[in-house]
Amino acid sequence: MTQAADRLQLVRDRIAAAAKAAGRDPASVTLVAVSKGRSAAAVEQLIVAGQRDFGENRVQEAQEKWPTLRARYPGVRLHEIGQLQSNKAAEATALFDVIHSIDRLTLIDALAKAERRPDLYVQVNIGAEDQKGGCAIADVPALVAAVRDRGLPLLGLMAIPPLGFEPAPFFALLAKLAWREGLSGLSMGMSSDYRAAVMLGATCVRVGSALFDD
Question: Looking at residue 40, which CATH number applies to its domain?
Fold first, then answer.
């Protein structure tokens, strides 16, 4: 096996173990390989190893990297995981299959006008951090309602816990917020904490360094 395949198998095994410990089906968790800043060659190694979901932060980088890869590997799904400007909505919907960073009404309106409709997550600023994207916890019901009112496909909520704090309480809070809104999708957990996220209900984990760094 290649190093990429070894890393992928290790992460998959850890997701499966965490899911089983929580009484969950490991297949209920989608692993998104965060490929922002990674070369097409490094990405292709993971694709060849069997990875099919990838995450990018910027529309421009994804436009430069992915058309050739997707033509070669049509089964790949692309996730937008960074902050998205409303004026990039049309470009994003043409490129991405899932957008994880819905955090304001103007962006929802822009997406509603686009021809293609990817699956969406409402991003929550779960730690109330000034420097981080996402809507305030108090605004979650209104944004969820706005997405639904416009007929857009809503999977659930996304959040990134603040650095330097135990992530589990923030994961539990996001799960509670999603439950209140009747949502089952939880995009939470990264390389340092994805096992805890799976234990607390994550349906999508976004893992970068654990998959790409030797």
Answer: 3.20.20.10
State the sign of the Cα–Cα–Cα–Cα dihedral 117, 178, 138, 173.
negative
Tens-place pLDDT, residues 197-213: 999 999 999 999 999 98
Query: Residue 14 — very low, low, confident or very high, per pLDDT cuts 50/70/90?
Result: very high
155/122 Cα distance (integer angstroms): 8
| Nearest CA among 168, 74, 176 for reference residue 124 | 176
The Cα–Cα gap between 119 and 78 comes to 11
DSSP state of 162: P
State CA 24 to chain mean position distance: 19
Give the pair of three-digit tokens for residue 8: 């992928």
Element containing residue 34 per DSSP (H, E) = strand 30-34
What pLDDT, on the 0 to 100 scale, is given for residue 131?
82
Element at 207 (helix H, strand E): strand 204-207
Residue with the bigger pLDDT between 196 and 2: it is 196
In DSSP terms, which residues pair with 121 in a beta bridge? Answer: 156
The string of DSSP codes covering 38-49 is --HHHHHHHHHH
Domains of the chain: total: 1
Residues paired with residue 102 on neighbouring β-strands, in sequence order: 122
Which domain range does residue 136 map to? Answer: 3-212
Q: CA 85, 80, 165 angle in degrees (round to 5)?
A: 95
